[in-house]
């Protein structure tokens, strides 16, 4: 079904809204043990102000499993004008010198760089070790592991640099990492097409999506797959260097998107990694980890406790989809540590809540609706896991889940919406003081939507409906949904690539789309999915959109969670088909006819009286 979409000439293009329609950074991997970081050459605005290194168009961070990052870079002497990821998982760079394609054929040790140039240019392969001339088309680089570079272009060796010169025409450079050179470039290209097509064809097919959004679904799956460390299982939050870490939260959604799409092995690799990852304390993960060596980032001193609930939800969902009881038994010690921490914290808290933590947006420390509701969902998941394993103490888990659930509603409900954050206040009355929880501004937040979508409350409950109406009324902007009022991130706080406060975010807009799907409002959800697609970078989804000029904010694009959230919403899209509509219409007609007959019968009976 999918193969017609994998033409190497196919570009997924959104409606261009600015010069920022192409990504500045991308990741590719071979699905086994190699990953490369591609600096596309598309400039970031004010790079030094935004904290970005000044790199030219290049391939960097050549990661090789147990060896880590190998000291080798490939630099291109070109001026890139456009960059995108194809549905055959090839990165294409359009430059003033012609086109460059970069691919890493799955399950092989090869990196291919293909040139179709209109003028001469040079490529510089740099390392810190010896480069040996083998013959006119091959060099050997004594890195660990050894790398061979073969090419049909001419080259010269200058100290620890191989300079490859290409002229007008078609050329190739093949990097063979820890393996003998292949030389069969067309064969590797065909293998890449075949393996990518096979993987995409194995994906679950969303129902009723228009062609542009179906392509977006597949491209987002590839982006998630490329942003996973193929050796460890960690996910990068983004190829952008400031986000090139593995956040537990973002990664959990990436794994859930993959497993919902049927790619269980990729998700399993992450869940097994997280089950064994170093923890801040028993049952509590660090906020983020190094993407390449899985070491915790200890600079985040305030924990983010949503990772606990997301882990529990994610592994239960994995079991639900696969029926893999062996997996559940394997991770039971980690689940036990998590739920033990949750119950202890609920018991110790005078409010029967988990402790204050850093918010989902990492902007403040408080009691957060997001964190508490996600952990409530996590406890529900643990209860179901224990029930599946015939553990009788699942009822104990449900007891504490109910206690947490009631505490969340009792503390966070603020007249007609859920307050995002609560702070501790001291009230003095009658000579006595009392410590209470009170909403901290800004208290309306789009993050209150997703836990409800995921099952914290029925979407049709009065709480859910009222909360949605307030969030939507307060935060809808430029067609998408902002995080919270007066959000300065990307404008005057940390990053500076927006022209005004309150940029609409892709994930928050998709939170709204998912809620609308839960209500059966599929046309409205589809409109939001189209808005997301229309504000992408050639189909690659950014973190946020400029609130004035509607261009993708380039500093954090593409964002892996944005792609994961799109795929989750796409798979949840189940519009009424024509046959279903016909059936429903038939039921309605039949119901009306029955009602008419009943009314006539009543009239006849009354007349007889």
TrEMBL record:
State the UniProt keywords alphabetically.
Hydrolase, Membrane, Transmembrane, Transmembrane helix
- MF (Gene Ontology): hydrolase activity, hydrolyzing O-glycosyl compounds
Q: Which InterPro entries match?
A: 6-hairpin_glycosidase_sf, 6hp_glycosidase-like_sf, GH15-like
Q: Which residues cross the membrane?
A: 587-606
Q: Which residues form the GH15-like domain?
A: 225-516
Instruction: Give the GO terms filed under biological process for this record.
Output: carbohydrate metabolic process
From which domain of life does this come?
A: Archaea
A Pfam family reported for this protein in Swiss-Prot or TrEMBL? Glyco_hydro_15
SUPFAM superfamilies the record matches: Six-hairpin glycosidases
Keyword Membrane (UniProt): yes
> This chain belongs to which protein, by name?
Glucoamylase-related glycosyl hydrolase
């Amino acid at each position: 079904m999918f193969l017609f979409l994998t033409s190497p000439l196919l570009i997924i293009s959104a409606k261009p809204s600015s010069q920022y329609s192409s990504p500045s950074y991308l990741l590719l991997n071979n699905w086994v043990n190699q990953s490369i970081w591609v600096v596309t050459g598309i400039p970031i605005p004010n790079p030094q102000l935004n904290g970005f290194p000044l790199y030219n168009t290049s391939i960097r961070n050549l990661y090789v499993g147990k060896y880590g990052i190998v000291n080798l870079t490939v630099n291109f002497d070109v001026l890139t004008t456009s960059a995108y990821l194809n549905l055959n998982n090839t990165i294409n760079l359009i430059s003033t010198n012609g086109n460059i394609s970069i691919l890493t054929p799955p399950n092989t040790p090869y990196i291919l760089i293909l040139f179709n140039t209109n003028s001469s240019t040079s490529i510089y392969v740099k390392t810190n070790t010896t480069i040996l001339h083998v013959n006119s088309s091959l060099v050997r680089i004594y890195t660990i592991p050894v790398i061979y570079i073969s090419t049909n272009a001419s080259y010269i060796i200058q100290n620890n640099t191989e300079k490859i010169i290409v002229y007008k025409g078609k050329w190739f450079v093949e990097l063979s990492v820890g393996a003998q050179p292949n030389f069969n470039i067309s064969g590797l290209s065909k293998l890449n097409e075949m393996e990518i097509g096979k993987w995409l064809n194995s994906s679950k097919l969303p129902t009723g999506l228009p062609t542009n959004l179906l392509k977006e679904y597949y491209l987002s799956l590839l982006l998630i797959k490329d942003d996973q460390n193929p050796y460890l299982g960690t996910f990068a939050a983004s190829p952008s260097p400031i986000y090139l870490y593995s956040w537990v939260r973002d990664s959990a959604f990436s794994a859930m998107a993959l497993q919902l799409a049927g790619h269980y092995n990729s998700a399993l690799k992450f869940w097994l990694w997280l089950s064994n990852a170093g923890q801040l304390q028993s049952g509590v993960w660090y906020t983020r980890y190094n993407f390449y060596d899985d070491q915790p980032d200890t600079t985040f001193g305030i924990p983010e406790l949503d990772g606990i609930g997301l882990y529990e939800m994610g592994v239960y969902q994995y079991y639900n989809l696969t029926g893999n009881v062996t997996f559940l038994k394997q991770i039971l010690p980690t689940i036990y540590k998590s739920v033990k921490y949750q119950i202890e914290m609920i018991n110790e808290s005078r409010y029967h809540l988990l402790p204050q933590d850093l918010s989902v947006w990492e902007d403040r420390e408080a009691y957060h609706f997001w964190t508490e509701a996600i952990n409530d969902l996590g406890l529900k998941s643990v209860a179901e896991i224990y029930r599946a394993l015939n553990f009788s103490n699942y009822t104990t888990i449900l007891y504490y889940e109910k206690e947490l659930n009631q505490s969340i509603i009792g503390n966070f409900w603020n007249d007609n919406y859920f307050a995002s954050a609560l702070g501790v206040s001291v009230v003095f009355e009658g000579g006595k003081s009392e410590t209470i929880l009170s909403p901290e501004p800004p208290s309306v937040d789009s993050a209150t939507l997703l836990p409800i979508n995921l099952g914290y409350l029925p979407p049709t409950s009065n709480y859910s409906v009222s909360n949605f109406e307030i969030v939507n009324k307060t935060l809808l902007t430029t067609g998408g949904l902002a995080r919270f009022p007066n959000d300065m991130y990307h404008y005057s706080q940390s990053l500076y690539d927006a022209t005004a406060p309150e940029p609409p975010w892709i994930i928050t807009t998709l939170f709204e789309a998912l809620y609308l799907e839960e209500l059966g409002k599929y046309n409205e959800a589809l409109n939001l999915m189209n808005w997301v697609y229309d504000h992408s970078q050639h189909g690659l989804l950014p973190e946020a959109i400029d609130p004035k000029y509607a261009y993708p904010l380039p500093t954090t694009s593409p964002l892996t969670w944005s792609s994961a959230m799109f795929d989750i919403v796409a798979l949840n899209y189940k519009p009424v088909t024509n046959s279903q509509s016909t059936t429903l219409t038939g039921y309605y007609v039949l119901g009306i006819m029955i009602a008419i007959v009943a009314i006539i019968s009543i009239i006849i009976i009354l007349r007889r009286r």
